[in-house]
Amino acid sequence: MDGHPKRQAEGAEPCGAGKEVPQVKRYAESPQRTGHTLSEPKPSQLLKIVNALDISINVFMDFDIETVSDVLSLILKMDEQLDMNFEAERYEDGSFNPSTIKISFKNSLLNHKLGV
């Protein structure tokens, strides 16, 4: 224990970024008290949750991916921010065979996480 009276009283243990597990647990167990559902927490609460769990805020985002254009937009955005490779076999006329297109990443950490 760190000597903090509230943490000693509640028996809480620190969890990531100095946040407390009970804070996240209380929020998750009583959405009616906060006036928000778990799918729509206040931005300040969402930031506390992602910081406490040490995860990306993107986990909670809904991107409404419904069309091919939506997918292509996300792929192009990823290509801007990541070092991606696009590969495909070619037909005799030099055009790409669409069924052979492959996307890979030059980032070893990302490749490791995807392979787990």
Backbone structural class: mainly alpha
Order of SSEs, N→C?
A: HEEHHHHEEH
Count of helical stretches? 6
Average pLDDT, all residues: 76
Largest beta sheet: what is the strand line-up? 1-2
User: What is the terminal-to-terminal distance?
Assistant: 34 Å
Shape by Cα distribution: elongated
Low-confidence stretches: 1-16
Global Rg: 22 Å
What's the total number of strands?
Answer: 4
The amount of beta strand, in percent, is 5-15%
Estimated helix fraction = 40-55%
Question: What is the makeup of the main sheet?
Answer: 2 strands, antiparallel
What do you see in this structure?
This protein is mainly α and 116 residues long. The protein is built from 6 helices and 4 strands; from the N terminus they run αββααααββα. The strands form 2 sheets. Strands 1-2 form a two-stranded antiparallel sheet. The chain is elongated and about 60 Å long. The two termini are 34 Å apart.
